[in-house]
Amino acid sequence: TLPLEKVSSYKYLGVTFSDDLTWNTHINTVVSSACKSLGYIKRNLHSTPHCVKLTAYKSFVRAKLDYANFIWWPHQAYLINKLESVQNKASRFISHDYSRTSSVTALKTNLDLCPLAERTKLARLVMFHKIYYSSSSFRNHYCQPPSHISLRRDHSQKINPLFARTNKFQNSPLSLAINNWNSLPEAIALENNPAKFRDLCKAHLKSVFR
After folding, report:
1. For 43-65, what is the mean pLDDT?
2. Residue 86: exposed, middle, or buried by beta-carbon count in 10 A (0-12, 13-18, 19+)?
3. Closest CA to 116 of 82, 145, 150
């Protein structure tokens, strides 16, 4: 048998895990790959209609930023901004508007491109919804009701938040998913149909983020 080599990071199923339990390496890799794809689109589609550019961005660039995002999405503002900067550059290219006085937020709104953080939160909630309305042992272990539910602040499907001693665990996918779930309106949390739940969440998050 060969001894296992010790490495600082390892890519598994498209996600790079690091020995320091951070996602910096993965995020840098994703941003680099997305920027290369965006550069390719800029070189080859610069004269095409904006609808073609938009479709290409969603298919070849944003798809990379979305892949497994609810697992590795950072809580640090500088990393979130780094990821969003790719979409900002794409929005200016698609709109053919590089003016410093133009609002990139307005450009994204006109293109119906929501913030990547919003898309991540939606993906996280959709995934957790599948867990919550399943009968798996994972659900039974982690989705425990709290000792008290406030009729004024909480919905009836509230889950007991995970106790976190460290910042990393507090911002882990499951901990964030439970916190996001607990902040949903009652009507959305009660919806057990996956497609309807996604539509309700999408509309709700759109009103929260904008």
Report:
1. 97
2. buried
3. 82
Tokens of 89: 């550059």
How far the first Cα of the chain sits from its last, in Å, is: 56
Note whether 185 and 125 are same-domain residues: yes
pLDDT at 82 over 70: yes
Tokens 């890519």 sit at which residue? 11
Q: Which of the listed residues 113, 142, 157 is the one where a domain comes to its end? A: 113
Q: Quote the CA–CA distance of 95 and 208 in Å, as a whole number.
A: 25
- Stated as kind and residue range, the H or E segment containing 75 is none
13: domain range? 9-113
* Number of domains the chain contains: 2
Residue 210: the pLDDT is 64
Q: What mean pLDDT is predicted for residues 92-100? A: 96
**In terms of domains, do 13 and 107 share one?**
yes
**Tell me, what's the pLDDT at 152?**
87
Write down the pLDDT at residue 134.
94
d(Cα 49, Cα 142) in Å, to the nearest integer? 49
Give the pTM: 0.91
Tokens, residue 151: 């009729």
Residue 145 lies in a domain: yes
- Provide the residue type at 209 as one letter: F
Residue 2 in domain = no
Q: Which residues on adjacent β-strands are paired with residue 10?
A: 17
